[in-house]
Design a protein that fits this description.
Blueprint (H helix, E strand, L loop, with lengths): L18 H29 L2 H4 L1 H19 L1 H4 L4 H25 L8 H31 L4 H26 L1 H19 L3 H20 L10 E2 L2 E2 L5 E6 L4 E7 L2 E6 L3 E4 L13 H6 L5 H5 L5 E4 L5 H8 L5 E5 L2 H11 L13 E5 L2 H6 L5 E7 L22 H9 L1 E13 L5 H15 L9 E6 L7 E8 L5 H13 L3 E5 L8 H8 L2 H7 L20 H5 L10 H32 L7 H29 L2 H26 L7 H24 L5 H19 L2 H10 L17 H26 L1 H17 L1 H8 L1
Parallel strand pairs: 7-8, 7-10, 8-9, 10-11
Antiparallel strand pairs: 1-2, 3-4, 4-5, 5-6, 11-13, 12-13, 12-14
Helix pairs in contact: 1-3, 1-6, 1-7, 1-8, 3-6, 3-21, 3-27, 5-6, 5-8, 7-8, 7-23, 8-9, 15-16, 16-18, 18-19, 21-27, 22-23, 22-24, 22-25, 22-26, 22-27, 22-28, 23-25, 24-28, 26-29, 27-28
C-alpha cells in the first residue's frame, strides 16, 4: 500500500529525522491505514451487501493515490512546514476523522438498488471513507519525497506495518468487533502522531487523544454506543435483538420473531434455533413442520443413517436426523459464534441442548477441509441452503460457500459416503430453475469423473410446491449407485403424505421439466450452452456457483428481475459499476491533476508503462492468491489476512534488501525474471499442490502458505522501489542524502502505479469470474513480463 510521490525539498531546510523514529512512525501509520481498510470491508458487508465490501479496497487505493498527487501539486506551500510537524498534524487529524467517518458510515442508509437517492448515499460513503486514506497518502508522499535517499527502508517499513495490520485484524474483529476495530485504527493514528511529535506539548496532546480513543473503545466494548444502525438500507431496531456478536467471519445476531428465535448473519441470512424435545417429537407439531420440507427425504431414505451436515446453523437438519433415529450426526459449522457461543452456550437451554447430545458431534471447521482430514464414511452428506451471502474482506464473490458447490467438492462428498450413501443438497429455486439445476449439473459431472457413465437413475429431485414462484426450496438427492425401486416407492409414499411436496425428477417418472431434460442429456455442458441461465458445472478454478447470469442478461439489463438471487447476480453489475467509478476517479484524482500541472510533470509514456505493469501485476497476483487460498485455509478472511500478511511482510523485506542485492537499479530485471518464473510454475502446479494438502492441520497449512508465498513476496518487493531509484536518479547514479530526487517523473510513476492498483483490484475479479483463477494468475505473470520488457527505458528516460 505504499504511496510514493517525492518532491524536491532542499535537504538543508529539513532537520534530519532519526531513522528509528522515522521508520516506526511510518510503519504505525501504515498499520492504521490497512487495519482501517480491512475493518471497513467487514463493516460494509453488514450495512450494505457483500458486493460492496469490495469497494473498500478501491476506496483505500484511490484515497492513498489522490493524497500523493495533491502532495505534489501543493509541494511549494508544504515546503515551509517540517516533516515531523506535518506528520503529527495529519495523523492527529486523521484519528479524529476516522471516528467521524465511522459514524457517517453507520448512519447513512443504502439499499441495493439504483435509485438516485441510494446512488447519492453510496457516493457519500465512497467519498467520506476515502478521506482518511487521502490524508495518509498525503503524509506518505511528503515523507517519501523528503527522505528519498531511504526509499527502500521506507517502503519496507510501510509494507511491514501493513503486514502487522493483516496479522491483527482477525483477533481484533474476534475480540472487539467491526466498529471497535476501526476505532483501534484511530488509536494507532493518534499513537503515530505522538511518535512523530517534535515537542513535548505536541506529544502530550497526541497521547491524550490516543487515551480518549482508548476510553471510547472500552466504553463501546459491548457495542451499545457505536454499532450498526442501518443495514441493507433498513433501520435495525435494537428492540428485536437479544444478542449480537462480531467476529472475523460475520456479525451474528439472535432476534426475536414471534415466539421463535432466529440467528441472523450480517443482517441478511438467517437460521431458526430449534426448540423441541427429541423425546416428544411425535407429540408436537415439530414432526409435520420439519418432515414436510424437501430436505426430509434424506431422513426418509436413511432414518438410521450416519449424517454429516455442513452448515447446521440453528439445528434444523440436526434435529430432524436425531428425531428420526440417526445414531450419529456430525455437524460442521464454520462460525464459532453459532456453533459454540449460541447453540452450546447462551441458547443451549432454549435449544434443549441439541448440540450437546451424545449422538451429536459439532465441529467448528470449513466443510471440505474437515472432510478431507477425516477418513470417516457417512450415509448422508447434507447441505441445506448454505449461503450466508456474508462477505469478508476478500470482497465480492469470495464466499466460502462457493467452494462447497464445485465439482471437486462433490467428488469429495461422494468419496466420504458409504457404498449406498447419498448427498442431499437443498437450494432455492425459481420459475426458471437455475440453482438446484446447477447442483444436478455439478453432481452429474462429479459422477462422470467417478466412472458413472449414465447417472439417469442416480438422482431424485423434489420441491416444496410447484415451481410457479421464486424462492422454492428444492432438494437434490444423488448417489454413486442407482436408486432402487424400494427407495423410489418410499419417496413417493412420503410425497403423497405431504401434499405440498412435489416430485421434479424420479428415475421411473422423470417428468417434463429442465431437471429431466438436463439428466436425460447426460451432458451438463451442452445443456448449459442452450439453457437460458448459466448452469455449467463450476470448478475450484472458478468457484462462482451462485452467478447464473449469461452475458445476454447483462446486456439486456434484466438483472433486477432475476428473482431472489438478484442479491448475488447484481454483484456482477456492482463490479462493473466499481470499475467505471474507479476509471473516472483515477482520471479525476490521479491523472488530471498531474496533466494540468504542466511543465516537467509530463513524461514520456514508456517509463510509466513499467510502473503500471508492476502495480497491475502485484494486485492481480495478490487477489488471485487470496481466492486460491480460500479453500486451502478454510475461509476468505483467513485467506485474506494470511496471504496479504505474508506477501507484504516478505515484500517489505525484499524492499529493504533491494539496494544491497541490486546495487545498480538497472539490475531490476533479476527479480522481475524470478517473479515471472515462479508465477508460471504456480500456474501449472499450485492448484494440485494446494488440493493435495487441504486436509492437513491448520498450523501446517499456515506453514505451507509461508513456504509458497514468502519467497515470491520477497522478490515482488524489489521491482517497485528499484524502478523508482532508476527513474529518480541520473544515468549511472543513485539518489543520496545530499542529492534529493529531481522533478523527473517519479510523481507520474507513482500515480500510474496507484491507478493500476485501483483498476487491477476490480479487474482481477472480472477476469476470475470470466476465465478462472489460473488465468488471473497468468495475467499477473504477463504484467510482470511487460515490466521486464520496458526496463531498459527507465534509465534512458532518467538521463
Amino acid at each position: 500500500m505504499a504511496v510514493i510521490a517525492p518532491t524536491p525539498i532542499p535537504v538543508a531546510a529539513q532537520a534530519e529525522i532519526p531513522e528509528t523514529r522515522l521508520l516506526a512512525g511510518l510503519g504505525l501509520t501504515s498499520f492504521a491505514a490497512l487495519l482501517l481498510e480491512l475493518s471497513l470491508t467487514r463493516l460494509f458487508s453488514v450495512i450494505l451487501f457483500y458486493h460492496f465490501a469490495f469497494l473498500a479496497i478501491s476506496i483505500a487505493l484511490l484515497g492513498l493515490g489522490a493524497g500523493g498527487v495533491f502532495a505534489y501539486l501543493l509541494k511549494n506551500r508544504l515546503r515551509k512546514f517540517g516533516t515531523r510537524a506535518l506528520a503529527t498534524c495529519l495523523c492527529a487529524a486523521n484519528s479524529v476523522l476516522v471516528v467521524v467517518v465511522l459514524e457517517i458510515v453507520l448512519h447513512v442508509p443504502v439499499a441495493l438498488d439504483f435509485r438516485w437517492k441510494n446512488l447519492f448515499h453510496l457516493t457519500i460513503l465512497y467519498l467520506t471513507t476515502a478521506v482518511p486514506f487521502f490524508l495518509t497518502g498525503l503524509l506518505f508522499s511528503i515523507v517519501f519525497a523528503r527522505e528519498s535517499s531511504r526509499i527502500p527502508r521506507l517502503y519496507g517499513a510501510d509494507l511491514c506495518g501493513g503486514a502487522l495490520a493483516c496479522l491483527a485484524v482477525v483477533p481484533l474483529l474476534n475480540w472487539l468487533g467491526g466498529p471497535n476495530a476501526i476505532l483501534v485504527s484511530a488509536i494507532a493514528l493518534a499513537a503515530a502522531a505522538a511518535l512523530w511529535a517534535e515537542t513535548g506539548a505536541a506529544r502530550r496532546n497526541a497521547a491524550l487523544l490516543a487515551l480518549a480513543l482508548v476510553v471510547l473503545t472500552a466504553a463501546n466494548y459491548s457495542g451499545r454506543l457505536i454499532d450498526v444502525v442501518y443495514a441493507k438500507g433498513k433501520f435495525r431496531d435494537p428492540a428485536w435483538v437479544e444478542f449480537a456478536r462480531w467476529n472475523a467471519l460475520s456479525r451474528v445476531e439472535v432476534d426475536r420473531q414471534g415466539q421463535g428465535k432466529v440467528i441472523v448473519i450480517d443482517a441478511d441470512a438467517s437460521t431458526y434455533i430449534m426448540n423441541a424435545e427429541v423425546a416428544r417429537w411425535h407429540e408436537t407439531a415439530w414432526e409435520d413442520a420439519l418432515m414436510s420440507a424437501p430436505p426430509a427425504l434424506a431422513n426418509v431414505l436413511r432414518p438410521h443413517g450416519e449424517f454429516a451436515i455442513i452448515g447446521p446453523g440453528g439445528g434444523v437438519d440436526v434435529l430432524r436426523a436425531v428425531a428420526n433415529g440417526s445414531p450419529s450426526v456430525t455437524g460442521i459449522e464454520i462460525n464459532p459464534i453459532i456453533a459454540s457461543t449460541i447453540m452450546q452456550g447462551r441458547y443451549a437451554d432454549y435449544s434443549q441442548h441439541l448440540y450437546q447430545r451424545p449422538d451429536v458431534h459439532i465441529h467448528v471447521s470449513e466443510g471440505r477441509s474437515f472432510l478431507r482430514s477425516k477418513a470417516q464414511q457417512f450415509d448422508v452428506v447434507q447441505m441445506t441452503l448454505v449461503d450466508t451471502w456474508a462477505s469478508t474482506a476478500a470482497g465480492a464473490f469470495a464466499l466460502s460457500e462457493n467452494n462447497l458447490y464445485t465439482v471437486e467438492a462433490f467428488q469429495e462428498y461422494f468419496d466420504h459416503l458409504n457404498p449406498d450413501g447419498m448427498i442431499a443438497i437443498t437450494r432455492w429455486e425459481f420459475r426458471e430453475p437455475r440453482e438446484a439445476l446447477r447442483v444436478v449439473a455439478v453432481a452429474m459431472e462429479a459422477l462422470h469423473r467417478l466412472g458413472v457413465a449414465n447417472p439417469a437413475r442416480n438422482f431424485i429431485v423434489a420441491s416444496e410446491g410447484a415451481l410457479d414462484e421464486d424462492g422454492i426450496p428444492v432438494v437434490v438427492l444423488a448417489k454413486k449407485t442407482a436408486f432402487t425401486p424400494a427407495e423410489e416407492a418410499a419417496v413417493s409414499a412420503h410425497l403423497n403424505r405431504y401434499s405440498k411436496l412435489h416430485a421434479l425428477y424420479l428415475p421411473s417418472q422423470p417428468g417434463q421439466n429442465p431437471f429431466s431434460a438436463l439428466i436425460a442429456s447426460n451432458d451438463p455442458y451442452a445443456f448449459a450452452r442452450s439453457y437460458a441461465y448459466n448452469v455449467t458445472p463450476v470448478s475450484d478454478n472458478a468457484p462462482f456457483f451462485f452467478f447464473t447470469l449469461k452475458v445476454g442478461h447483462l446486456l439486456r439489463g434484466e438483472t433486477m428481475r432475476m428473482g431472489i438471487d438478484w442479491k448475488v447476480n447484481l454483484g456482477v453489475l456492482v463490479l462493473l459499476l466499481v470499475l467505471v467509478i474507479s476509471l473516472v476517479a483515477v482520471f479525476v484524482f490521479l491523472v488530471l491533476p498531474l496533466e494540468f500541472a504542466g511543465g516537467r510533470a509530463r513524461q514520456s509514456t514508456l517509463p510509466l508503462v513499467y510502473f503500471v505493469a508492476v502495480g497491475l501485476g502485484y494486485i492481480l497476483v495478490e487477489i488471485a492468491f487470496i481466492q486460491r487460498f480460500v479453500l486451502f485455509l478454510g475461509h476468505p478472511t483467513y485467506a485474506l489476512t494470511v496471504v496479504i500478511f505474508l506477501l507484504m511482510l516478505s515484500s517489505g523485506a525484499g524492499s529493504l534488501f533491494s539496494r544491497l542485492w541490486l546495487p545498480r537499479a538497472e539490475m531490476v530485471w533479476i527479480p522481475l525474471l524470478l517473479v515471472i518464473v515462479t508465477l508460471v510454475a504456480d500456474v501449472f502446479f499450485l492448484p494440485s499442490r494446494l488440493a493435495a494438502l487441504v486436509g492437513i492441520g491448520f498450523q501446517y497449512r499456515l506453514l505451507v502458505s509461508g513456504v509458497l508465498l514468502v519467497p515470491l513476496g520477497f522478490v515482488m518487493g524489489m521491482p517497485f522501489p528499484t524502478g523508482l531509484r532508476a527513474l529518480a536518479s541520473p544515468r549511472g547514479c543513485e539518489i543520496s542524502a545530499d542529492q534529493p530526487a529531481l522533478d523527473n517523473g517519479v510523481e507520474w510513476a507513482w500515480s500510474m502505479n496507484a491507478a493500476a492498483s485501483v483498476l487491477g483490484s476490480v479487474l482481477a475479479m472480472v477476469i476470475a469470474i470470466q476465465f478462472g483463477l489460473t488465468v488471473t494468475l497468468a495475467c499477473g505473470a504477463a504484467a510482470y513480463l511487460l515490466a521486464l520488457v520496458v526496463v531498459p527505458v527507465l534509465q534512458t528516460n532518467a538521463a
